[in-house]
Amino acid sequence: MTSDHDHTRADHPAQRPANETPPYPVEEIAAAWQRERPGTPVSSIGIVTPLWRLAKLFGDDRRRVLARAGVDTATLDLLSVLRRAGEPYALTTRELAARSLITAGAISQRVARAEREGLVTRRPGEGRRRSVIVELTPTGHQLIESTVDQVLTREADLLTGLDAEQQNQLAHLLRVLLQDVQQRLNDHGLNQVGAEE
Predict the structure, then answer these.
(1) At what angle do helices 45-69 and 25-36 cross, to 10 degrees?
(2) In angstroms, how far is the first alpha carbon of the chain from the final one?
């Protein structure tokens, strides 16, 4: 026989004993579909649902980090591509679009916004007609130098629930899965979560 106190503790997860593992909603979702619709394939739920949830958690956390740094995800992506290109940290808009895996129109919007903020400059390219070269300004360079460490340090910290071997295994499996799904869907974009187009 259980007391009212026991019922209260069982019905409210916040009062669950510290050493008791909370239920995993993903398993509950799969089990519910199996119960309600026997024969419905549910194997993907244990992978796709956590990926969606992790994408939201990582995306939301990155936006908070960037908000504190005074930059948005799309601008970070633009500055990162220029910085990774190496000196003189300049690329054509065509190269930027290809390396960012987004459309030329989206790159134009990002560049215009970053230029207004003094983070990049634009100038006509040489040779190719209508070519435009985008280059990091000292302000843009300083911003990406300080921001990239904040972002990557934070995200590395969020992964410490897995040891180094587990992280390597997960990275390998995600690469295999991503490449296969991209091939199946004929979609090879890889925008950052939450990036503005």
Answers:
(1) 140
(2) 59
